Structure formats: C-alpha cells, structure tokens
Amino acid sequence: MYITAVGILVLTLGAVFVVRSFGSSSGADGFLGGSKPCDDPTQIQLATTPEMQPAIDAATKSLTAKGGKDGNPCLQFTISAAPSAQVARDVAHGSDTRPDLWIPDSSLWVAQADDGQTVPNIAVASIATSPLVLVGRRTNFADTSSWLRSLAGASPALLDPLNTSPGALTLLSVQVERQKTSASDTQVSQVIVPMAQRLGSMAKPYTDVSALFGRADQDGSTTVVPASEQSFVKYQDAHPDTQLKAIQPATGTLTLDYPIVVTAKSDTDQADQAAKALGGELMSDASAQARDQAGFRDTSLSALSGGRGVGDVSQLTKPTSEAIDSTLQNWTRLSLSTHSLAVVDVSGSMAEKVGAKTRMQLTVEAATSGLNLFPDTAKLGLWTFSTQIGPDKADYKQLVPIAPLSKVQRGKIVGQLKIQQPIPGGGTGLYDTAIAAVRQVRQQYDQSAVNTILLFTDGKNDDPGSPTLAQAVRTLQGLQDPSRPVRIIALGMGPEANADELSALAQATGGQAYVARNPGDLKGVFIDALQSR
C-alpha cells in the first residue's frame, strides 16, 4: 500500500512537471514554482536582413523567456532571413510569405513595400546603424572630397542598386551631396552613365560584398567598393592581413538604419506591441556589447570600439521617398543595354570652323569619346548623311552595320569616323535619313535593349526632294509600335541647328532633341542625351 501511494505521488508530481515545462513557449520554470508561464503566446513571423539575424535570434529568445513576467508580453517568434529588397517585393505583391514584422537594413525599402492597401508602418525607427563607406586600397583614394570624385578616380564595383542598400545608397549619396558640391547633371552623368552601362550589361549583378572586397584586396587592384561599415569590419575580422581601408568622403554619408516595420495584414496592434518590445530588448544595455562586436553602431552613430571602422561620421541629408523612387527608376533605365545607330551629318556646313577645329572634327571627337560610355555588350552601328551620297542617290550611307561593340567593332567605327570629311556643297538630307534610320533599327530590333538613333547634325533639312516636316513627322509616328519603341535622340550643334525641327522629329518617336549652340559643348550634350534615354 505504501509503495502504491508513493508511486502515485511520484507519477503525479512528474505529470505536473511535464505540464509546466511544456505549457510555456519560454521553457517555464517548472515544478518549483515562479511566475505564471505563457500558456498562449502571440505568434510572430519576423523577417530580417541576414547580417542582423544572430542579434535577432538572441533578443527574441531573451524576450520569449521573459514572457508573462513583470508585464512582458507573451510572444513566440519564427524568424527568417532574406534580402531587404526581396521582402519589400513580397509585401508589395501580396505574397503568402508576408511576415508580421520586418527588419530591413535600410528604411529606404519601406516605401517600396506598399501594396496599395496597407502601408507598412515603422514601429521602431532604428535598432542599430552602419554608415555607408568606400572600401579599397589606400592608393585608390587620391580625391575623397565627395562621393562623385571618389568614384570617378577609381574603378567602382557597385552592389546592385535595385537589390542592395549599399548600392542604392551610393547613388543617393551622389545625388544628395550635390547640395554641398553643386555638381552639374553632366558631371554626375559622366560617372553614373558608364557605370550603369557597364554593370547593367553583366549577366549577374554584384550582390556578394565579401567577394568584391577580395577583388579589391588584390595587388594592383583599382577597385573600390561602396559598402556598409559593418560588412567591412567583419571582413577585417576574417582577414586580419587585409590591405583594404574604409573611408568616408568629406561631404558625409548616408546610413543603414535597421528599423522594425509592421507588415502584418491583420492584428497590427499586436504586431506593433511586439515590435516595441523587441526594440527595447535590442537596445538594452545587455545587447550593446554584442551589437558593437558584430560591427553595428548604436542609433546615435557612436563610433565602434577599438578604433574599428571609420570613426566619427557626418551625415548627408536623408533622401525623400520621391528621390529614392526617381534614382532607382533612373538607374533601371540607364542600365539597360543599348542597340543604336549613330547617324552623322557630313554636309558641307560641317566644314565650318569653331575656333581651331571644324564642326566635323568636334563631332567626331564627341562621338569617339562617347564610345567609351558603352560596354562591349552594347550594339552600335554608323551611318553618315548628306544629300544623294548613298546608293540610288539616297541621302544616307551605311558605313558600319549594327553589331556588339567588340574591339573589332569599335575599331571599325572609330576608323570610319576619323576619315570622314564634309562634302563640299552637300545638303542636309535630314528627313529621309531620319525615316530610313528608324526603319533600319526596327528591322533589327533588340527586345532586351534600348533601341535608338543618335542623330548628329549642325543644320536643318535642305533637300528639296524630301517630304515636308509635317509629312516626315506623320511617317515617323506611323512607324512607332509602343511595344517596340525606336527613339530618335537628336543632337544639334551650332547656331544653324533648328531646335524646333529636331524636336519635332525626335518627339514623333518618343525621343528628345538637344542643341549645343557652341559645338565645343557637344560632348556634354551627348552625355545628357544618354542620361535621358
């Protein structure tokens, strides 16, 4: 009887212990008592940027363990790690994987996550920070007075701006620092356009910052990498012999700010409370040392311990959501590959001198220099035009067919440009040439590229046998297919260029016209034209 009673008592106590142990998501405090455990914790799906996941794991475990005690909420977290841009797209597109809470590496992605019904709400402005820095070998930092000059003086390897915060913040830094530098559109374009063309032509954009650091670390490398200070500090930890250094341009920098965002479709109040509780845990004194060791700064941007990173930083003005949208859309347009036909005026007036050089020489210089803006994967061909210079007395002549800009193709185009001479007495057969050029590009249309005609001229149409301007415009409009656009980018030069005429032709195709009254400005106008394509 005694054995039976003892056995029942042991079984009863064991059952109590099991119930109490498994009845709490925090692990409970078992048979010996303590505060009441969480019997029904609120389930929170949380997505975070990968580099922040270890800190989030630790904080959520600590917060869960406190559940039901001292007024702490009962919470249970399921955590996933994904790039911020990917989560933003998932939320915006109404994906089934939409989390309740989201910790992106930058608040710039929050506006990109608007699904048109529920605007994500930032519950905690920031749980950590990391300034954008420029990483490279010391020899590659000759001019660090601005982001623009720093990038222009080296070979920038830019992380994909459409999918990474360091890439997007780099473009935004170049734009917002103009409040201090007064850099012109042309100066910015001279750096951004070739970078966009080069990176846009890659089969796979850069997304692995450690791999880029490795490239920049090689002897003789001219590569510089815009990146978060945190990623650089972790690279230093793993590569103590690295020759890389991080700098902040003198104009200042933008920062990755790691907000906690409520992305829940329903029960947003519960998600908001969970976000605030998690934010408090992450910003507690207990989390400060771990945050610093992981390479993150606090929300005040205090310098990292031990002299790591770039020390004190100054901040650039935070860009607006409109500026973010505009910058990313501009990059999308610029990074598309090019399928173009350059059409150069060789009429008699091109022999006129501007200073020591003829208009023809200035045009050739601008076109030759412009070739350097295009990557090898771009496709480009060359025509010249003047009245009755081609087969069957056409006003245009094909010199180099459109093809990828290999070394051979570049050589052909440059070689042909250099031997061109204005035709004495030759007129400007502008209308027929514009129509023929659009037809030619349409025949070879490249669906994956921007299809354009780059039309260089110093005058206006003076071919008596050509259609009228109104007829030419109607013909060009009739050739247009919205799903397969072919645009004329007209580049006029000199006082005789008819801006109205060029604009009419360009706008009939959805393109634009630019006129450099001083032909010496043609190179800058050419870059502006590419910027607007």
Automatic annotation (TrEMBL):
Domain of life here? Bacteria
- State the species of origin: Kribbella hippodromi
Protein name as it appears in the record: Substrate-binding domain-containing protein
Location of the VWFA domain:
339-530
Give the matching Pfam families.
Answer: SBP_bac_11, VWA
